[in-house]
Amino acid sequence: MPPETFPGVSSRRELNKENTRSSIAAAALSLLRQRAGGSMTAEEIAEAAGVSRRTFFNYFPSVEAALNVPTEDFLNRALENLDALHDDLPVMEAAVRALQSLADPELLAPVAELFVLSGGNAQLGRLQLESWENCSTRLVEIVRERVSGDQRLPVAVFAHSVIGAGKAAFVDWAEDWGNDLSNTSMQALKQSLINALALLRDGFPTLRMQADSTARKA
């Protein structure tokens, strides 16, 4: 049996790949911080990560793709957490619980930082949007497996609403906290995400109350 077929060898290889990917992504984010959102090259990131330019492009097609890793990892983790929940749990409640499980500030902080910095980087902003769109596509697939019957439209509306709520939560957080990445700020971001999904789950109760009050006055 060739060495590469042994599980231990394969596991070490995958671990090394993941470590290299993480090192490149961390170096890219560090350079982005140092330059306050300014431009950088793949060569500069590779040098900071201690790898060759060729290795960089083996892992990422562009500088922006390396920078976007925290966002992709966060969204993937949220989807994995949702998919792991019991099928009997209502999908809206499952979505809220999936976000509640993402309490680690180390996971949220780089995503929040990139969200703020991407405002000055058009390409990174486009990649962030693409990550959210890809997440909505995967969410549709997960939810379809949890519901019965032909519910294509409700499932699509649900998935895109959840993703829209998530993006709105980041916008709301950034308006109050800006570049603050403290634990307190990350807890506020987590709560904003949960509150956004709760609004979807509960049907925007405060807006209904205001609408009812306006109707009575009329």
Automatic annotation (TrEMBL):
This is AcrR family transcriptional regulator. Residues 18-78 form the HTH tetR-type domain. InterPro entries: Homeodomain-like_sf, HTH_TetR. GO terms for molecular function: DNA binding. It comes from the Bacteria. Residues 41-60 bind DNA. Keywords: DNA-binding. CDD domains: CYCLIN_SF (cd00043).
